[in-house]
Amino acid sequence: MSTHELNRAKLALAAAGALPQEELLQVEQHARQCPVCLRELEVWSVYARGLGQLPQPTLPLGLVARTQAKVLSERADAADRRRDAVMLGFLAAFSWASSVAFWVVARALTGGVLEAFGTNWVGAVPWFLASALLAWMTAAAAAITLGRRREIRRTL
Amino acid sequence: MGLFCTLVRIRYMILAASMNLDELGAVEDSLTRLKEGDLDALASVMAQYQHRLYRFLFRLAQDPTLADDLFQQTWLRVMERIGRYDARRQFAPWLFSVARNLAIDTLRQGRLASLDAVEDSGVAPIDRLAAAERDPLEQLLEFERGAALVSALAELPVIHREVLTLRFEEEMKLEQIAEVIDVPLSTVKSRLTRALEGLRGRLR
Q: Does B200 contact A43 at a Cβ distance shorter than 8 Å?
């Protein structure tokens, strides 16, 4: 590629102010000696000027206020979700702690044997399974209640 | 011609310097408060960037409704991710990068912008002219040139529109553009050249 072609390829970037100082000087120096490139640089400069002065779109009325309201509402929803998650976590922990405590008490009161339907209900496995079932049912009920409450708040 | 390039550089320097230091400090302070979760700081950060951000999104989307939607989504995303913003870096490239990613994702999903959306912006050309103070004929000619450029710009691919608007309207350096669109500097240069050539080709 000749010097002319190399410099010509950089004319658009030169007009866009997007060349390093050294390259810009080379391009300008070449353009001073080459009428074709000088003319081309002038044309690109017109485009560069024009692009910097385009008709501006107008910010729609109320857009900023609507955006701020949306951000606030989204923040409130996120805070609710966090609070609900903490609440559910606490309930789950409480449920398991109660279950273990009751198990210890039940074993102490029954001497470790509470037979019914051929199962020792104060044995570790049946107690664990029954507690898990109870915990899942409670969690589902809590999740449904919290979901409904959030739905009502959103409607309001 | 060297004079023009020098004038362009001087203009950028004056623009950079014209940003009041107090104003910069206030924005930094607001950003710090925003990072700490203070929602009151959002208003001042938005006030600083709202016009630039909307203009950028409008150029990308070419549709006022879509730009409106993207504007709201951008601030929601900013609030989600403000904790990840590195306060040692400039906020504008980070903000524009968030906005750009949302816009590109939305445009990829097929909500393509209408090419004649510029005329639907709700602002009559006469209103734009009335805001200026020069000779009406000169303004009209300039407006027509501007409208032709906007129209040609709208026909360019979005990856070319974004570099043109970031360079000429946001007056970002190439390094900042590379940060916004997440490509190497050489790609920014080649896209800028192709974008200018594409624009010129459409105006011939």
A: yes
Biggest CA-to-CA distance, chain B: 52
d(CA B204, CA B202) in angstroms, rounded, equals 6
Q: Is residue B173 part of a domain?
A: no
What is the maximum alpha-carbon separation in chain A? 107
Domain count, chain B: 1
Q: Which domain holds residue B33?
A: 1-122
Interface A-B, measured as beta-carbon pairs within 8 A, has a size of 123
Residues A125-142 pLDDT 10s: 888 888 888 878 887 887
Chain B residue with the nearest C-alpha to that of A79: B37
Picking from B15, B72, B78, B162 by the largest number of A CB atoms within 10 A of its own CB, the best residue to mutate is B72
Is B76 within 8 Å of chain A by CB?
A: yes
Does residue B72 lie within any of the structural domains? Answer: yes
Residue B111 lies in a domain: yes
Is B201 inside any structural domain? no
Nearest CB to A57 within list B5, B58, B189: B58
pLDDT per residue as tens digits for the range B60-115: 999 999 999 999 999 999 999 998 898 888 899 999 999 999 999 999 887 544 33
Q: Under 8 Å CB-to-CB from B51, ≥6 apart: which residues?
A: A56, A59
In chain B, the residue whose alpha carbon lies closest to the alpha carbon of A49 is B168
pTM above 0.90, yes or no: no
Report the CATH number at residue B107: 1.10.1740.10
pLDDT tier at B188 (50, 70, 90 boundaries)?
very high
Total residue count of chain A as it appears in this document: 156
- State whether B68 and A17 contact (CB < 8 Å): no
Q: Is B4 on the interface with A (CB under 8 A)?
A: yes
Task: List CB contacts (< 8 A) between A68 and chain B.
Answer: 42-43, 46
